[in-house]
Amino acid sequence: xxxxxRVSPGTAAPAEGSSCxxxxxxxxxxxxxxxxxxxxTVGLVVLFHRSCGQYKTLPQNAPGWHCIPxxxxxxxxxxxxxxxxxxxxxxxxxxxxxDWMPWNESQQNCSGMGSHLVxxxxxxxxxxxxxxxxxxxxxxxxxxxxxxxAQKVGQWRWADQTPYNETAAFWRPREPSDDPNELCxxxxxxxxxxxxxxxxxxxxxxxxxxxxxxxxx
Length: 217
Ligand code: 2F8
What we know:
The protein is an alpha+beta fold. It has three helices and eleven strands; from the N terminus they run αββββαβαββββββ. It is elongated and about 90 Å long.
């Protein structure tokens, strides 16, 4: 038996063993840290992604958000936000335009801002809109498109697919005229006239009201 043969079995094995036992805690620690970091990164990415997806982007020409305390008791300590320049009412935000165009373009303009032409569901909403028109335009008479139109005479459809409900419709007396040339609807505003909807040709240029769900944070 030479020297090497004598030393190897007795010394090499313990030496390797002790080197492993010195490294193992570090390897374990580094691995644990790496796993923890990876898990935290994944968690943060998921959270960030969720919270980003939760909030709407602003319409292009809106400079920022305007938030008010949420009045609803069930949502205490939360805020209701509308893009600046939009008006809040209940759970929605409303945009009253400064320019006028046909119905189709009006709807496209609203959808370009992530909204739709206004859908009026209640007497309270109709009252709010009348008041806002009075305040903003201060005009004797003005036409603004709403999100109601018909493909065929009498078959009224709301822009967001809400079913049309005759009991929550606010037509002017003797309207709609049910003329096949008048398939789009405006609010034909006159001061102190509550029921003011009128069917008109879709090609006429009118102001518009866009509506979108308010952002709650
Ligand atoms: O009120 C009757 C009638 O008045 C106008 O036509 C003369 C309206 N047209 C427009 O506002 C473009 C009709 O819709 C209305 O029925």
